[in-house]
Amino acid sequence: MPISPAMAEAAAEEIRRIYAEAERIVMEKVARRVARGIDEEGYYERKLAELQALRREVEAEIRRLQRAEREVERIVADAYEKGSQAAIVDLRKVAQADTLRTAFTATNQRAIEALVRTAIGNLRATHLRILRQAEDVYRQVIAETAAPQVLTGALTRREAVQLALNRFADMGITGFVDRAGRTWTIESYAEMATRTAAGQAAVQGHIDRLIDNDRDLVIVSDAPEECPLCAPWEGRVLSLTGRTPGYPTVDQARAAGLFHPNCRHSLGAYIPGLTQPMRQTRDAEGYQERVQQRYMERQIRKWKLRESVAITEDAKREARAKVREWQRRMREFVAEHNRKRLYTREQINRAR
After folding, report:
1. Which of 43, 52, 98, 233 has its Cα between 20 and 30 A from that of 220?
2. From CA 239, how far away is CA 229, in angstroms rounded?
3. For all residues of the chain together, what is the average pLDDT?
4. 3-state SS assignment for residue 269
């Protein structure tokens, strides 16, 4: 029984929302602090003196992210257990229940702990980045008030600060680079890291249980809207250990790109003579539609962030108008392509 590729979708979405909320709060703290007393004398010097106060506020928000760590630990352990149980369901088709090795061992527990350490380590690596980027942007925004165009009167101080805050909102808290060299925003990275960790845990739990029962062959699932990297592996039979001649190994498939970050594929036990060959389906159009929908969701969130850091009425009106425009585009897109609109992915409000 293949593990569902969507098993971690809701959990990863919740982690994304937690980090998206942290990003919004940090941005709002920067915006509120730089806006306070913006038209008063001595603004530049006073704001630089407030940097330590901003640091304490951001550090407090980072500490609240510990709830995400506890949730990720639960998600990973649950995924490993589900992967193990899915393997047992398959094994019961070809073996007597009382002959199967189903006990949860110390080796299994160590595997879970290793997966949890990696997942939480990936998330914690973002926390220092949040603090550094908030401080850097704060200094940059304050510096904008001393720019030549402000001193000469081409821009007001408020206008200059708003332009800098807009750039911050558009960029987001970013800088997280994966092994492929791709740069992620904090919320997207947190979601990717969680989904990937859960997927790896489910696959590892499945593999460990099969190996415990001397099974070596698995079949790759058919996932909807698959990416071009994974498509060639759908329905392929793989060897877990390499001891079965004529089959590529799971490690070889991974090296070729299967189970990449955000991968939606899983493994199921392959029982010769029992497992039916999987019909390979291709949904390149669906993949492109999903990519387009994710882009539109990011645009909606981007302009909501713009509104959250707006310190002028013109900026607020522009952001609200852009939110409505992208929401209209989204309505038209999902109607045209008969897709489900995922409202939670358009939100930047507090996770529940």
Report:
1. 98
2. 20
3. 85
4. strand
